[in-house]
Amino acid sequence: MDNKQKHALASIRSNYGKFSDKEKKIADYVLYNPQNIIHNTINQVADELEVAESTVFRFCKRIGFKGYQAFKIALAAEIVTPMKDIHEKISDGDSVGTVSEKVFRSNIKTLEDTMQIIDGTIFQQAVESIADASKVEFFGSGGSAVVALDAYHKFIRTGIQVNANLESHMQLMSASQLTSGDVAILISHSGSTKDMLDVLQTLKENGVTTISITNFAKSPLTKEADISLYTVSEEIDFRSEAMSSRIAQLTIIDALYTNIMIAEQEDGRHALQNMREAISLKRL
């Protein structure tokens, strides 16, 4: 069983926005009733959803499986994994050590699931767009604003002209000054934050290339962005899913930054050396 098969649910979530209406019907059924898939035949599932068996079969093929049986086996292995058991519940009576372990496992699972749904071709497009940009600006609100600031902190080392504003009015003002030669990276867990959608509208009016980083494939932001990158996270007690997704967002930024530094080669090394010499003045 390969890695893609082990992450059936994550693959469905990440590709949701690309599905047809019938495929979304099947996807919703799987996401909300995974046990039914395990215990039912393809004929039973097709009858319940009022679709053709061939439609269910093609859905399984689209998300990377040889057929319904392979998908069912992989799904069964995924939903009974020990990782899920410790990931899903934090109790009032848990010790500090147990709570800490569950938080770590939640973050690990988020990173593993996100890694499995990364589309290499789309990620390559994001890297090339950034490398070719005259200017790159990062946008985020709420918790995602912290990720945008972290991205700015990293990418300023590349030698590329970068910027990030955390205040919503300043974001709109800055977005209005970007042009078709620039790239904007919008970070939003839900992909439906009004501030980010307002910024996106301004960017699109100016012909700016837009890259979104969100947790949901089906969102207004991913629908309109030129390039969409996804994280995968699940909610656990006492902690919102946005917290673990932030770890994945930061990791996507790290991967973009590292790829850009490799692509820039000598220019990147020169910019990094200049940065190190400048901040060395702060050390005693």
Describe the model.
The structure is a single chain. With 284 residues, the protein is α/β, with parallel strands linked by helices. It has two domains: 3-79, Winged helix-like DNA-binding domain superfamily/Winged helix DNA-binding domain (Arc Repressor Mutant, subunit A, Orthogonal Bundle); 120-282, Rossmann fold, CATH 3.40.50. 63% of the residues lie in helices and 8% in strands. It has helices spanning 3-6, 8-15, 21-32, 34-39, 42-49, 53-62, 68-79, 82-88, 96-117, 120-132, 143-155, 168-175, 194-205, 220-224, 241-264, 266-279, and strands spanning 136-140, 162-164, 183-187, 209-214, 227-230. A five-stranded parallel sheet has the order 2-1-3-4-5, with helices on both faces. Helix 13 links the parallel strand 3 and strand 4. Helix 2 packs across helix 9 (96-117) and helix 10 (120-132) packs across helix 15. The radius of gyration is 21 Å and the shape is globular. The model is unreliable at 1-5 and 82-88 (pLDDT under 50).
> How many strands, what sense, and barrel or not for the largest sheet?
5 strands, parallel
- Structure summary, number of beta strands: 5
CATH T-level topology of the largest domain: Rossmann fold
The CATH superfamily of the largest domain bears the name: Glucose-6-phosphate isomerase like protein, domain 1
What portion of residues is helical? 55-70%
Strand order within the widest beta sheet: 2-1-3-4-5
| Molecular shape | globular
What's the rounded overall pLDDT mean? Answer: 84
CATH top level of the largest domain is Alpha Beta
How many structural domains in the coordinates? 2
Cα end-to-end separation: 54 Å
Rg (C-alpha, Å)? 21 Å
**Which class do the helix and strand fractions yield?**
alpha/beta
